[in-house]
Structure to design on (870 residues):
């Protein structure tokens, strides 16, 4: 039987038909039933699904990497961390690639619009906001499915928010609120809208949209977080009951343990207390939290909240130990630790007035507090002024004490000395007892550890086991303990019985050669009576019995009161304390040089509080200090504004005078200067006008009148910002005089019939010293090969180095080289930003120049005797 092709076609015709239909369906444009089904399945599972999975992975990593700051309202949306996106860049690029496959190869599938949305989100993560916006807008315009359009717009809200186009974000939110959205789209809109309003710091709208979103969310960690944020917002609004309910809902939504812990902690904060039993209940609740083994890492926060709770009850003394315990139990939460330091600083400063302690806590808070904290700047400000603040407080207290002692009789002073001495000795004994207890406890702990580890037949062992002297840490600890008790004694027999000098390894040779008797030995040689007498003499010598000594202390106190008042007033914004300090200053030092200023500050403070008192200060100021700016400000409240207006007019005059000066119209400039000085006295530009007048004098009248004007300026305007400039001008005149004297003493020889050198002088620069000599030598040999030139680098003086190119046969060829070197072909054209000078010089004159070491001493001679024009 003969089998033909037609036979096979007939036999497998249905199979072949299916094959050709499948091939036809693969076409991107095929929209038939088979093609549509094929493209939907392939687009979803081969492209869109993979891209979406990778996108969710990146979004989850961003969420997980974000560290929640539970001391502030949590973020509705975790900020997009560019570090995370960059680390996942390959994955983000693949999201765009896979989504693009679904778009390009499966154009008729229903997943094309969704793939465009993935591309838009990926672009947003890449901070390609404009591309993201265009992509999402494209979906909104071209999609045939309303809900897909709305989905794109919900993500457009987020993109506009991240891009900072907040008005556009609001417009999209308003538009979507008027549409019929699916449940899923509503949820996305409400969350993105809450994020938008959180960026705007609008808590009411955040509450509105989060409350709406929560109703559409399933139970789970995300819903728990949103309830927590609502709880925080209600708590800040003093709606404790509603906050309590939301914190309770956190616990009903399978929260992560950290969120659960803080929800429970915050519930204690918003519990309404009505009687003593409630307070006991909260304290017991905190104790239970501390005992819970799962809360080991949160002990610092628990102790902090216990301190906050006691502070709310007015129990400052009970609150302080809790804040300290918070610091001691801090593991790795520097943010929380900084809050505890800050709180202690506040209490010791504001409530207890223990300023040195307050400064110590503020120093610690400032050192570790993250800069993104809202109170960071406040902490930084107070920390920066506390050092000066305490200095003034100490000056007042110490000087007061010394002056008071000087007014007492010797017996009263002696009683104070003995009381202070006894107090110091008791303190030293107590410190010694504490150290001994600590050492006994440490020894007991070591014994317990050794017992728990079982018997060990070695006696010389380190704490961790093994021979004692094999453990360097243990040996070092033993050596330090020995030194603390016995001193740094040399190795010798019977060292306990010998009264030897204790040496410090860091003693200088001069100290080593001093008599070999220590202070401790000298004190041991003294009887108790002699030792007390010695200390008493030292104490009495520190007291300022002389009138001159007391006046010096009073002057220091006067300045300290003034500075302290200003710190209160301007730095710490503690107005009441400032006024108390100013009034004390006037009371104790009625003739103070600061009286006019203090009277004015007191007048300003009492002006809207106690009118009669304010007027009393004003009357004294007008009567006793009528010519001061403070009196003028009371007479004319607009004095400062008018003074500023006058200064503005003088500024215009000064600018006009300066332009005339630049145009060398010195007579016109002087006319403008005189107008400004005569018509507008006491203006802010008087010093500018005076210095410009001096500069013109230097040009028109010569050096000596110029020098006199500069000296007068410095005498009359020592506080001017231009003082240092005037001083530098005066110094420049003196330097110029010295240089002229030096140059007059240097005589160059007008003999040119000899070999010449070419010299490049430049400011010292190691990099140039390694490059320029060869550059110049190559240039010389290129254009003057017959001279066989060689270069070298020499140190000229402290400021300059020189390159010497030698040697030219005579003056004419040296001049020719100079002209060529300074033409457009110059090898220095690539170093225009640097300061160079170059010239040719005869051998004899080079010896004079090099020995003189004065850089510009040869300039005039060179310009006079050489043809230097290129």
């Amino acid at each position: 039987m003969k089998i033909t092709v037609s036979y096979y076609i007939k036999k497998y015709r249905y199979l072949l038909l299916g094959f050709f239909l499948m091939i036809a369906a693969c076409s991107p444009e095929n929209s038939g039933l088979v093609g549509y089904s094929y493209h939907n399945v392939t687009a979803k599972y081969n492209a869109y699904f993979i891209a979406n999975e990778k996108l969710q992975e990146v979004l989850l990593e961003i969420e997980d990497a974000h560290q929640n700051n539970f001391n502030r309202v949590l973020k509705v949306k975790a900020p997009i961390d560019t570090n995370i996106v960059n680390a996942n860049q390959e994955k983000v690029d693949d999201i765009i690639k896979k989504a693009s496959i679904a778009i390009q190869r499966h154009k008729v599938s229903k997943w094309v619009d969704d793939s465009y949305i993935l591309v838009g989100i990926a672009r947003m993560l890449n901070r390609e906001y404009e591309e993201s916006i265009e992509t999402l807008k494209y979906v909104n315009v071209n999609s045939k499915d309303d809900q897909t359009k709305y989905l794109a717009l919900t993500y457009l809200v987020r993109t506009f928010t991240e891009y900072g186009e907040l008005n556009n974000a609001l417009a999209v939110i308003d538009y979507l609120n008027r549409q019929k959205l699916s449940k899923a789209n509503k949820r996305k809109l409400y969350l993105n809208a809450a994020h938008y309003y959180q960026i705007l710091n609008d808590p009411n709208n955040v509450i509105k949209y989060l409350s709406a979103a929560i109703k559409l969310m399933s139970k789970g960690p995300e819903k728990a977080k949103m309830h927590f944020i609502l709880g925080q917002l209600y708590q800040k609004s003093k709606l404790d009951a509603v906050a309590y309910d939301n914190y309770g809902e956190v616990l009903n939504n399978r929260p992560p343990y950290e969120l659960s812990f803080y929800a429970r902690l915050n519930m204690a904060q918003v519990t309404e207390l009505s009687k003593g039993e409630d307070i006991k209940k909260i304290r017991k609740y905190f104790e239970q939290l501390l005992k819970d083994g799962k809360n080991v890492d949160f002990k610092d926060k628990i102790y902090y909240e216990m301190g906050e709770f006691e502070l709310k009850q007015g129990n400052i003394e009970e609150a302080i130990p809790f804040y300290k315990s918070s610091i001691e139990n801090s593991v790795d939460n520097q943010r929380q630790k900084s809050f505890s330091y800050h709180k202690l600083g506040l209490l010791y400063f504001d409530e207890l007035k223990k300023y040195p302690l307050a400064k110590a806590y503020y120093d610690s808070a400032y050192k570790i507090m993250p800069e993104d904290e809202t109170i960071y700047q406040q902490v930084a400000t107070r920390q920066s002024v506390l050092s000066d603040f305490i200095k003034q407080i100490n000056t007042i207290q110490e000087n007061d004490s010394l002056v008071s002692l000087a007014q007492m009789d010797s017996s009263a002073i002696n009683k104070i000395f003995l009381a202070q001495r006894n107090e110091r000795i008791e303190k030293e004994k107590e410190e010694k007892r504490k150290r001994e207890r600590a050492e006994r406890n440490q020894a007991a702990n070591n014994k317990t550890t050794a017992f728990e580890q079982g018997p060990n037949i070695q006696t010389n062992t380190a704490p961790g086991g093994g021979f004692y002297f094999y453990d360097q840490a243990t040996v070092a600890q033993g050596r330090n303990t020995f030194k603390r008790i016995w001193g740094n004694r040399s190795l010798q027999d019977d060292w306990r019985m010998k009264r030897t000098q204790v040496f410090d390894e860091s003693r200088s040779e001069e100290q080593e050669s001093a008599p070999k008797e220590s202070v401790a030995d000298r004190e041991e040689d003294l009887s108790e009576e002699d030792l007390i007498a010695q200390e008493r003499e030292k104490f009495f010598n520190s007291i300022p019995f002389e009138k001159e000594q007391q006046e010096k202390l009073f002057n220091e106190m006067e300045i300290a009161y003034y500075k302290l008042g200003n710190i209160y007033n301007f730095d710490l914004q503690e107005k009441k304390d400032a006024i108390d300090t100013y009034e004390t200053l006037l009371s104790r030092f009625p003739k103070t040089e600061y009286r006019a200023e203090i009277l004015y500050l007191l007048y300003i403070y009492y002006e809207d509080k106690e009118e009669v008192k304010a007027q009393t200060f004003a009357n004294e100021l007008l009567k006793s200090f009528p010519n001061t700016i403070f009196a003028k400000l009371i007479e004319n409240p607009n004095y400062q504004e008018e003074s500023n207006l006058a200064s503005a007019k003088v500024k215009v005059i000064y600018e006009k005078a300066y332009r005339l000066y630049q145009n060398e119209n010195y007579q016109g400039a002087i006319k403008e200067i005189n107008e400004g000085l005569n018509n507008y006295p006491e203006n802010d530009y008087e010093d500018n006008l005076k210095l410009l007048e001096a500069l013109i004098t230097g040009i028109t009248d010569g050096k000596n009148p110029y020098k006199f004007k500069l000296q007068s300026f410095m005498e009359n305007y020592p506080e001017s910002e231009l003082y240092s400039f005037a001083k530098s001008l005066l110094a420049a005149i003196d330097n110029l005089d010295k240089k002229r004297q030096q140059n007059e003493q240097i005589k160059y020889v007008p003999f040119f019939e000899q070999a010449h050198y070419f010299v490049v002088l430049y400011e010292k620069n190691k990099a140039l010293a390694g490059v320029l000599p060869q550059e110049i030598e190559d240039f010389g040999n290129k254009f003057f090969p017959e001279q066989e030139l060689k270069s070298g680098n020499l140190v000229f003086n402290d400021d300059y180095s020189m390159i010497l190119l030698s040697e030219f046969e005579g003056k004419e060829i040296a001049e020719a080289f100079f002209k060529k070197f300074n033409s457009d072909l110059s090898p220095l054209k690539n170093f225009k930003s640097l300061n160079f000078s170059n010239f040719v010089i005869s051998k004899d004159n080079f010896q004079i120049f090099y020995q003189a070491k004065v850089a510009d001493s040869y300039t005039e001679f060179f310009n006079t005797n050489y043809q230097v024009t290129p």
Notes: Residues 640-742 form a domain with the Serine Threonine Protein Phosphatase 5, Tetratricopeptide repeat fold (CATH 1.25.40.10). The chain has a mean pLDDT of 81. The chain has 39 helices and four strands.
